[in-house]
Every structure is written in C-alpha cells, then in structure tokens.
Write a structure and sequence with these properties.
about 300 residues, alpha/beta, Rossmann fold, Isopropylmalate Dehydrogenase, six-stranded mixed β-sheet, 11 strands
C-alpha cells in the first residue's frame, strides 16, 4: 500500500469492524475524528469519559450520537477503563482523548488493567509525500527520547512489523545520522552500524537495514551515487530510523508544515495499537492515525 486511500480500502474490505476505546472522550477534535472514521466505515467506538460533556459536544457539533458511552468524569480513571476494555477484548484500539499523555501511558502500562507486553513501546509516523512512489515511515518522533542500541532494536522491530502489514514484504530501513560514515565521536553512527551488522547476521529479521546514512543518501539515489554509496537501502528507504526524538520530531514537523504530505501516527509495542494525536495534528491526520491503528489491529 502506497497511500492512505489504499489503507482505507483494505480496512473496508475486512470482514470484521474494529472498535476504538476513547479515553476521556469529551474532546471536540477527537469526537469529530471518530465520527468521520465511523462514517468512512473504518471502525466503531466506545466513548469513555464525562457523559454530560460528551453529549453536549456531540450536540454542539451536530454529530449524531451513535456510540456507546461509559460515564467517568476523572480522565485518569477513564483512561484505565478504556485500556481495560481493550485488554478484555471488548475493544481493539485505545485512543487518547482529553487526558494527558502521561496518564494514558500509565494506564497502558498498568499490570492489572493495562496493555503492557514487556516490549518497548514506540511511535511510528507514516507520510504520503507527493512525488514519492512509496510511503515514508519515521520512527521514533514522539515516544523514546534518547534510545540506546537495545531500545533502537525494539523501535526497529515494531516499525518493521507494522510496515510489513501494509504489504511491504521486506522493508528497507535507513539508520539516519548526520553523516554516512562511522565516527566514534557520534554514537548514532556507531549504533546504526551495529544495527546493520546485526541485520546482516540475522539478529534483526524481516528487513534490510543499512546505516549510518545521511537523510539525503536514504531518500535520493542521485545523492547516494554522488557520494559513492552502494547499498540496496540508499535512495530506497521505507523506514527512517531516527537517532533521537529531537531529530525525529524536527523531521516530522518539517514534512508536516513544509510539504503537502498526508500523515498519521500510532504507538506500537503494546497488546493493541494506541492512537495519541496532538491538538496540532490536522483533522485528516487524526483520521489517518485511526486508520493506521485499525489496520495494525
């Protein structure tokens, strides 16, 4: 799949409709997004939160109330209830509403009612960039701040599994750094080289990994050839494995605000996908994020 429209069509062709549990659903943009997702046939939803405020918002927004609502005025408690609905199989996806991310993640990681698996939880963003023949995936731009080698293995494993679900049989992964040579003074280059060797030896499976690669070498065949880089990944990367959250977040926002890209994002590594959108995300991005989670589920 090379576009969000293809993701939508695949979901619509599924024989089972997925259900999202929205934590603290008294949030205008989220209510609009889940309503649109239901209209498109992507999923249904259970709204957990302040029932009076939810109903008031639905009325103000002229949105039809077709959702099951579970009343809970405390956002942190609503997050735990929503996470438990997913844990018990009543819902398939968890989505953040008007609750802070810390409380949502605390609910996800709760051993009794949450969705923890022991695996690393990471964020992946998908971009449909005009002029590109494929979708680009950026990880991790929102969750892990300064991952070491072990964490990067977890981030990579989550990303590869997700991208394979889109029909990319063997994703190409670029370990993005400022330069394309190993420099012991730049730890990211050392990590990228080690990940590449681990991939060569079968310790990291299901993808082709190369690095360190600068961003231009990962995206442009011409740039790679100009620097004499010979690699099946150079110029053909599907997944951009970023060295830290700062570079990942900058790239995410640069693509969002300076291009006509369509985008979406989801948290991976829990028992079910988790949608954590920002208020700065566009309405379209929120719906795309839901679609990514539904496909992953």
């Amino acid at each position: 799949m090379k576009s969000f429209s293809e993701i939508y069509e695949k979901i619509k062709g599924s024989d089972r409709q997925r259900v999202i549990a929205v934590a603290a659903a008294e949030d205008e943009p989220v209510l609009q997004a889940v309503t649109k997702a239901k209209e498109l046939g992507l999923c249904n939803a259970v709204l957990v939160g302040d029932e009076e405020k939810i109903l008031s918002l639905l009325s103000e927004l002229s949105l039809e109330n077709t959702f099951k609502i579970i009343g809970e005025k405390n956002p942190a408690k609503a997050a735990r209830i929503a996470a438990n609905l997913v844990r018990e199989g009543e819902c398939d996806i968890l989505m953040k509403g008007l609750v802070d991310t810390k409380s949502l993640l605390r609910a996800v990681l709760d051993k009794e009612t949450g969705l923890a698996t022991g695996n690393l939880i990471s964020h992946i963003a998908a971009f449909e960039v005009p002029g590109y023949d494929r979708m680009l995936f950026v990880t991790d731009a929102a969750m892990n701040t300064y991952p070491g080698l072990k964490e990067k293995v977890g981030i990579l494993t989550n990303a590869v599994s997700f991208v394979k679900s889109l029909g990319v049989e063997t994703p190409k992964v670029a370990g993005i750094c400022a330069v394309e040579v190993v420099n012991e003074a730049m730890q990211a280059t050392v990590d990228a080289a080690m990940l590449s060797k681990m991939n060569d030896r079968g310790q990291i499976k299901g993808c082709i990994m190369d690095g360190p690669l600068a961003l231009d070498n990962a995206l442009s065949v011409e740039a790679a050839e100009h620097k004499g880089i010979k690699s099946p990944v150079a110029g053909h990367a599907d997944i951009l494995l970023m060295p830290n959250i700062e570079s990942g977040n900058v790239l995410y926002k640069a693509l969002t605000y300076t291009t006509e890209s369509k985008s979406g994002g989801v948290l991976l590594g829990a028992k079910a996908p988790v949608v954590v959108t920002s208020r700065a995300d566009s309405f379209e991005s929120k719906v795309n994020s839901i679609a990514m989670a539904v496909l992953n589920a």
